[in-house]
Amino acid sequence: NAGVTQTPKFQVLKTGQSMTLQCAQDMNHNSMYWYRQDPGMGLRLIYYSASEGTTDKGEVPNGYNVSRLNKREFSLRLESAAPSQTSVYFCASTPPGSSYEQYFGPGTRLTVT
Amino acid sequence: KQEVTQIPAALSVPEGENLVLNCSFTDSAIYNLQWFRQDPGKGLTSLLLIQSSQREQTSGRLNASLDKSSGRSTLYIAASQPGDSATYLCAVGAGYSTLTFGKGTMLLVSP
CA angle, B104 as apex, B103 and B107 as ends, to 5°? Predict the structure, then answer.
């Protein structure tokens, strides 16, 4: 199992450009999550998907959209990137059952200039 | 709104010491609590998960305790090693919906 994978690892965007961060898991997990991590702020939830076909807003959803393409894949889209979106983005997933233990991907480091 | 605080923010110890990292949370209605390790420039690695009905979990030299009523958890690391140097994150879970993270404790274990 590769676990949770994210692409790309690094990205530099200009203000106003758009891009999609990809996340996939091969562990047959039901729920998937997108977080951002900023110095001094900790990790904050952007969006999550409790199951295929559903998505919900987290703490900081403004400026982002998500798509739960299928059970394996959960993408995060920035339609018009802003410097405030410079951050490290992590995807996570949880297995079926009641533990809700979250497993994280390696992250995408995004810089918006 | 759940708030999670980790004390200390940074800790430096010599190799071999036993140490305790602290985590407190404001809302005791939690589903679980998870401790993670994060190495510089890397993702998060889950260390221990404690369900709300449990009091502690152990893995090797790590022991995590949970006191839901007082809103506290501790991560005990025995016989610390330089390889334990990392940032340790505490996160409180409310079922499937969300984890609320503390800002972490940066640990440095010197040889």
Answer: 150
Closest residue, chain A, to B39 (C-alpha): A106
Tens-place pLDDT, residues B37-70: 999 989 999 999 999 899 999 999 999 999 999 9
- Decide if A43 contacts A89 (C-beta within 8 A): no
Q: Across the strands, what pairs with B45?
A: B37
Mapping DSSP to helix (H, G, I), strand (E, B) and coil, where does residue A42 land? strand
**Minimum distance, in Å, between the CA of residue A67 and any CA atom of chain B:** 17
Closest residue to B96, CB basis, from A40, A94, A107: A94
Buried b (16+ CB within 10 A) or exposed e, B53-70: eeeebeeeebbbbbebee
* Nearest alpha carbon to residue B82 among B35, B39, B23, B34: B39
Torsion of CA B84, B57, A6, B9, to 10 degrees: -50
Q: Please write the tens of the pLDDT for every residue from B72-90.
A: 999 999 999 999 999 999 9
CA distance B69 to B66: 9
